[in-house]
Design a protein that fits this description.
The chain has one domain (9-94): Arc Repressor Mutant, subunit A (Orthogonal Bundle). It is mainly α. The protein contains four helices and three strands; from the N terminus they run αβααββα.
Amino acid sequence: MRGLTRVTEPTIEVLQVLLGSHGAVWGLRIAKETGRPTGTVYPILARLESLGWVQGDWEDAPERSGPRRRLYRLTDGAVELAAEAIEARRRAAATTAPRPAAAGGTL
C-alpha cells in the first residue's frame, strides 16, 4: 500500500464516509453523503483503489433491479491510515483557523 501524496478536503470527506460506514458503500451514496459531485468522488475512489487504500467490488444482488453498483470499502491496512489522515487534517485546520477578534477591540 502506498501513501497518499495529495490529501484534499474532498479526499478527507470520502475517507470519513468510508471510515464511518459499516461495510461496503456504493459510490453514489458517498457522493450524496459528502455533497460532492460524482465527477469528484469517483476519481478519488479510483486513486485510493490504485494505492491499495480501497477495495472496490461489483455488487452481486440479482434480485435488485437497476444497474449493478460498485461497492467500496477501506482495506484493513488503510483503516488506521485513513483515521490518521483525517486527524492530521483536523489538526492542521485548527492551527490555521483565523482567531476571533478580542472583545471590545477595534477592527
